[in-house]
Amino acid sequence: MNILGIETSCDETSAAIVQDGVHLLAQVTASQIDLHARFGGVVPEVASRRHVVDITKVVEQVFCDARMTWSDIDAIAVTCGPGLLGSLLVGVSAAKGYALATGKPIVGVHHIAGHVAAAMLAWAGGTGATPPFLCLVVSGGHTELLTVDSDFRFARLGGTRDDAAGEAYDKVARLLGLAYPGGPKVDDLAHRGRPDAYVFPRALLEDDGFDFSFSGLKSAVNNEIVKRRNRGQDVSVEDVCASFQAAVVEVLVEKTRRAALHTGARTIVVAGGVAANRGLREAMSKMAQALSARVIFPPIELCTDNAAMIAAAAYPRAKAGRWSPLTLNAYAQLPLADWQDDHWPGGHRLSPTCE
Amino acid sequence: MGVIAMDTATNALAVGVGTRDGQLLSGVVQRVPRGHSRLLQPSVQFALASAGLKMADVERIVTGVGPGSYTGVRMAVATAKAMGHALDVPVVAVPTVDAMARAAVLAEAAEVLPTRILVMLNARRGCAFGACYEHVEGGRFVQISEIQVLPIVEWMHSLGDDGRALIVRDWAGDSALASRAARSLTWGSLAGLMPQALLELGNRPEYAAYVGDDLHALAPVYALAVEAEAKWQAASEGGST
Ligand SMILES: [Zn+2]
C-alpha cells in the first residue's frame, strides 16, 4: 500500500510517498528556515503564505522523484493537528482537494503520532522500530513520554507542564545571541564546553511522575549570566551551553529510564526534532545499554517535521480502513487520546466513512 | 463538461458547479461560523453530484482569491490548486471582491443599475479590504481602484456624488454608510448569488488561468503585508539610510 503523506503543521512544506508504512520511496521538503531566520522565529502568517505556494510543488516533485502517478497511490495522509492552525489548514485543504479530485481515501494524522512513526520507517542501516515500545517525543513544541502498543495505540505517561525541551533550547540560544534556529547551535557549542561549569536546576527530577518542566531553566541561565557579568567575570558561551544541555539531557534520560523500568519496555524510541541532539543521543544510548534495552533514533532528517512520518503513522489506520471523512478539519490543539479514538474537538465525532 | 467554482474569503462559503459557458447548475452557500474548512470539499462533492457530473467531466476550476480572511481564503485556493493539479485542468483566479460586485449586479434590476459599486470587507480598526467599480455599459462594471485596504472614510470618497452608487459590505449596521450612497447592502443578503457570480467571471478572459507549471504560483490576493514583514522592511530601510 502506497500512501502519499502531506505535512504543513509549522514551517516545512513536505510531501512523501511511503510503502506499507515502512519504506520511504521519496520525500520532498520545502524548508522555510531562511524565510523566518530574520524574525528570530516562525511567523505563522508568513509560514501559511509560503505553504500555499509550495504545497503543489512538493507534491509534484515527490511523484517525479518516486517515478509514480496517482494510479500508484492508495491513500492520502495529512497532519490535522496539533500545530499552527493557518499552516495546518493549507495541508488539510490541499489533501482534501487531492482526495476529492482523485477519489483516494484520506487519513488525518496526529503530528506526535507522526514523530513516533518516523522511528518505524526503515532506513539505510536500520530496520526501524516495531511496536510495542516506549517513546520519548522531544521537539520545539512537545515533550511527551508515551507507550505505544502493538496496534500503534498510545498511552501517555507524562509530558511537559510548561515549555517543551526544544523551546528551552531556542530560548537559551536567543539569550546567548545565537541565530535562529539556535537549538542545533547550542548542541554544537555544548560539545566544546564544560558541563559542570554551572549548576542549573533539574526540575521535577525528585518527582515520581513522568512530567517535565523546562520553563525555570531559561531564567536560571539568564540569572547566572547576569550575575557573572555584574561581578565582571567572563561568561563562556560553550560552558553555558554544555551546562544547560547537561541539565536538560539528565532530566530527559532519567525520566525515560524510570519509565522503561516502570513499563518493562525493551525498546525505547526517541523521536522529534531534539532527537537529533548529539548530547541526548549519547546519554540515552548509554542509559539503554545499562538496562540492556534497545534504543532507536530516527535518522536525523526524519527527526524534524516531514511527510514520511505522517504517511507511516497513517498506515495502521489505512490498513484497517479507518478513513477520515471529507469533513476532516485542522486543529491547533488535538489531544493524542482524542485523535486515536476519533473524538474531534468541538464535539464532532469523526467516524470512519462508510463508503 | 463542467466547471467548479469556490470561494472561502468571506463569512459565506460559496461553491458552484456550472456549464463551460458559465451557467449555474448547482450552488451551495453556507454561512456556518468556522465551518468553511470542514464543509468546503463536501460541498463541492455534493454540488458536482447534484449537477450529475463526474470529476472527469471537470474542465476548469474557478477560485476566489480574496482579499478577505487570510486563513479563509487559503482554504479555497489550496483546494482549487490541488484539484487543478490532480486533474490537470486550469484554475482561474477571480478576486473575491470582483465576484461580490458581480453578485450585486445580478441582484439589481437592469434598468436601475448603480453607477458605481463599492465592495468592502471589514479589515478592523476602521479599515476595509475593498475595490470600487464603475458601470461601463450593458451591466458590465470595471474596477476603478486597485484592490487594497483603506480607511472606510477614504473608501467613501470613491462613490461619486450622483447618489446612484451602491455599497456592498460584510458588516451590519453603520447607517452613516447609506446616507451618501444611494443604497447600501450587506453581504449576507447577496451571498446566495456568489456561486453564479464566480462561474460567470471565471468564464471571462481577463482573469488569469493557471495550468501546468504555472499553477504553483497561484496565491491569494492578501492586499496587506504581514505585520512582521512590514516592520522588518521598515527597520531595514531605516537602518540603511
Ligand atoms: Zn514536529
Automatic annotation (TrEMBL), chain A:
GO aspect biological process, one term: tRNA threonylcarbamoyladenosine modification
Keyword annotations of the record: Acyltransferase, Cytoplasm, Iron, Metal-binding, Transferase, tRNA processing
Molecular function GO terms recorded: iron ion binding; tRNA N(6)-L-threonylcarbamoyladenine synthase activity
GO cellular component, one term: cytoplasm
Cofactor(s) demanded: Fe(2+)
Cofactor note: Binds 1 Fe(2+) ion per subunit.
Chain segments annotated as transmembrane: none
Record bears the keyword Transferase: yes
Catalytic activity: L-threonylcarbamoyladenylate + adenosine(37) in tRNA = N(6)-L-threonylcarbamoyladenosine(37) in tRNA + AMP + H(+)
Any Pfam family the entry gives: TsaD
Xref: HAMAP family: TsaD
Protein name per the record: tRNA N6-adenosine threonylcarbamoyltransferase
Organism of provenance: Alicyclobacillus sacchari
From TrEMBL, chain B:
UniProt feature coiled coil, ranges: none
SUPFAM superfamilies: Actin-like ATPase domain (SSF53067)
InterPro entries assigned: ATPase_NBD, Gcp-like_dom, T6A_TsaB
Residues annotated as domain Gcp-like: 33-133
Alphabetical GO biological process terms: tRNA threonylcarbamoyladenosine modification
One Pfam match: TsaD
Record NCBIfam families: T6A_YeaZ
Protein name in UniProt: tRNA threonylcarbamoyladenosine biosynthesis protein TsaB
Provenance organism: Alicyclobacillus sacchari
Lineage, uppermost ranks: Bacteria, Bacillati, Bacillota, Bacilli, Bacillales
